[in-house]
């Protein structure tokens, strides 16, 4: 059987409802691995999928499903690497930007708005690492066994540990 998180662990970690988790599977937004009986399979979610589900839950009140899909595509493109987790994601006129340096935010907005295009719509998604810190806290409170091994978060990984400790800027 593949390493990952069961359906119940995924619900506990992300705070998502069982029905919403089924919806994400049906719409193929987040599709878990399935084993065994096709009518009632065992379901396993990878760490990346748990991260995506938590991201969806955090953002669904602030952003449209299309914008959330863009963020998930971005996470997959970056292969969920911790090197960019301290950076903020921002939508400017429906286009997603990674803000690595807060001082670059103004120039990013100017570049995105073009010349005299009128009002600019800005929505901050926030630091990606905040989602990981939340997941780590949920894993502790729900006593998820071997969370560090299954998620890839270990005490030797300083980037992850800084996020868990709340040091993400």
CATH hierarchy: architecture: Orthogonal Bundle
CATH topology: Multidrug-efflux Transporter Regulator, Chain: A, Domain 2
Mean pLDDT: 77
The number of distinct structural domains comes to 1
Portion of residues in beta strands equals 5-15%
The biggest beta sheet is recorded as: 3 strands, antiparallel
Uncertain spans, ≥5 residues at pLDDT below 50?
A: none
> How many beta strands in the DSSP annotation?
6
Q: Please report the distance between the alpha carbons of the first and last residues.
A: 38 Å
Instruction: List SSEs in N-to-C order.
Output: EHHEEHHEEHEHHH
Model description:
The termini are far apart. A hairpin with a 2-residue loop joins strand 4 and strand 5. The mean pLDDT is 77. The radius of gyration is 17 Å and the shape is elongated. The chain is α+β, with helices and mostly antiparallel strands and 169 residues long. It has eight helices and six strands, in the order E-H-H-E-E-H-H-E-E-H-E-H-H-H. It has a single domain, classed as Multidrug-efflux Transporter Regulator, Chain: A, Domain 2, CATH 1.10.1660. The strands form two sheets. Strands 1-3-2 form a three-stranded antiparallel β-sheet. A three-stranded antiparallel β-sheet has the order 5-4-6, sandwiched between helices.
């Amino acid at each position: 059987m593949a390493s990952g998180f069961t359906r119940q662990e995924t619900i506990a970690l992300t705070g998502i409802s069982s029905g919403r988790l089924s919806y994400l599977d049906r719409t193929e937004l987040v599709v878990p691995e399935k084993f065994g009986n096709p009518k009632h399979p065992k379901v396993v979610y990878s760490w990346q999928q748990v991260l995506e589900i938590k991201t969806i839950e955090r953002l669904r009140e602030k952003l449209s499903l299309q914008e959330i899909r863009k963020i998930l595509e971005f996470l997959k493109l970056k292969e969920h690497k911790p090197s960019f987790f301290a950076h903020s994601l921002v939508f400017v006129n429906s286009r997603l930007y990674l803000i690595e340096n807060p001082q670059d935010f103004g120039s990013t907005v100017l570049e995105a708005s073009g010349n005299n295009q009128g009002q600019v719509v800005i929505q901050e998604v926030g630091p990606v690492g905040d989602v990981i810190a939340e997941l780590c806290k949920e894993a502790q409170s729900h006593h998820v066994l071997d969370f560090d091994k299954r998620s890839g978060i270990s005490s030797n990984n300083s980037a992850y540990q800084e996020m868990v400790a709340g040091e993400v800027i």
